[in-house]
Give the backbone structure.
Amino acid sequence: MEGFDQFNDSEKAEASELQRMIAIEQQKAQFQAQVHTFTDVCWDKCVDSPGSKLDHRTETCLVSCVERFIDTTLSITNRFTQMVQKGAH
């Protein structure tokens, strides 16, 4: 592990586990930020006036909006992955 040469094997394992846990927490934070973003966007687009229940039109709009948002995000992510892979070769 680069940068950890001065540590013993146990300390290196702990540092590696800590890095893994930090990466997981960063992924969770990214996911939560993504959910927050599409909640804001789709709420503003679909909900005219909040009530005690969502009407069918609002519910359909919210579902479609979230699905489009997810599809677009996946498409962009896949495109960046392809670009990175092409750049690595």
